[in-house]
Amino acid sequence: MDYATGLRCVNCGATYPLGPMFEGCPACRERDFVANLAVDYDYAAIAASLRLGELAQRPAGLWRYRELLPVGETAQRLSMGEGQTPLVWCQRLGKEVGLRRLYAKNEATNPTGSFKDRLCCLAVAHAWESGAQVVTAASTGNHGASLAAYAARAGLRSVIFALANIPPPMLTLMQVYGAAVVAVDSKEGRWMLMEQAVKGYRWYPAGTYLQPPVGNPYGVEGYKTIAYEICEQLGWQAPDLVFVPVGHGDGLSGVWKGFKEFQRLGFTSSKPAMVSVEALGALANAVAKGLPRVEPVSARPTVAFSIGSTLASHQALLALREPGGRAVTVSDEEIMEAQKALANLEGLYAEPSSAAAVAGLMKLARKGGMDPDSIVVCLLTSGGLKDPGASRAYLPPAPTARIENAAAAQRWLERFMEQWQ
Ligand SMILES: *Cc1c(COP(=O)(O)O)cnc(C)c1O
Ligand SMILES: [Zn+2]
Fold first, then answer.
1. Residue 318, CB half-sphere, CA atoms under 13 Å: how many?
2. Per-residue pLDDT tens for 161-178?
3. What's the predicted TM-score (pTM) here?
4. SS3 content of the chain, % helix, strand, coil (to 5)
5. Could you give the 3-state DSSP secondary structure of residue 191?
6. How many CB atoms lie within 10 A of CB 323?
7. DSSP letter (8 states) at residue 272
8. Alpha carbons within 13 A on the beta-carbon side of 315
9. Rounded to the nearest whole angstrom, what is the distance from the C-alpha of residue 292 to the centroid of ligand 1?
10. Beta bridge partners of 101
11. Digit-coded pLDDT (tens) for 297-311
12. How far apart are the first and last CA of the chain?
């Protein structure tokens, strides 16, 4: 049985039937503003048929939450072990920042190594169900890599519009999964190509091709499962504070929707406050100035290339306007310090864009005022091996050792022990 009932505008509340609507709400659109559409469900019917005890018995993965996801049974066969990522207690890092109950939700264990697998699993399942032959996205990173993999698995073709400065590991990932990758000379050019391909050739857009970004409403639903899993991993309880690295804010919005739904269904008794952590700070600017809408901020290079966007979606801003919501901006230095702390203290190596969540936490912790007993989760969106060059820049070369015999080995170790702190 399908419980998804339609799409609803997060701004004006207009409703639409489920269908290929990828350009946000037409009813309240203006020249510089588009509001997201979000999937609506018959929550009363879900509450009547879905029991917590039964849910807990189902196999792990995204589809165990099938009543709360917008594709049918056959499309739900698309899976390669995404989700069910570990919630890791960070005792040592927690001590540094004064928190007893700090956790990292490690999304690097997803099939292509990032939380984009939740988005792409849903988007490609929906594309397949809609009869699409080709899926497309504008991406220089995890989104494109994940889309290519899920398209391969679903038997669809994929075209990724990247930029010329696409990091080599990302290009390799996309191509090895069989995507046609095009290096476009401008961000706007990528979106223009994508828009025409979507309209003229009926390619399925797994992400946005508009500014302001509206995302793919079906894909964003995949991110809700992060919130569901966190609640279950905490013993059917919501955390108090969740730090999410934000580019366009699809991840943050999806996670927030998941927490809201679990409370609405009575599976949890509270909701956390959401904290967006950005490199450029479009949401932080809107929150600080009390703007009704997110405005673009100026571009600058950032080590966190996966979140280097100048504008975020309206629904992300709405999530931050809820009780306790906050927006933090972090610098490259703060991000690399957080990457190092996380790796050195917890053995977790996060891509800079992902370590940004921890950088945001460290920044807020320094300002003080965090309850040491609150339950705090940092969402680690991707692993460090996606961009090892960023860490190489602050790491020393390995010392060399030339050992001809046992005496040389002993001399070398003695010298090493004198210098090694
Ligand atoms: C895409 C991405 C993000 C940001 O996701 P949005 O939905 O655009 O906010 C954060 N971290 C990593 C590693 C990503 O790839
Ligand atoms: Zn609207």
1. 18
2. 999 988 899 999 999 999
3. 0.97
4. 45, 15, 40
5. helix
6. 8
7. P
8. 28
9. 23
10. 375
11. 999 999 999 999 999
12. 62
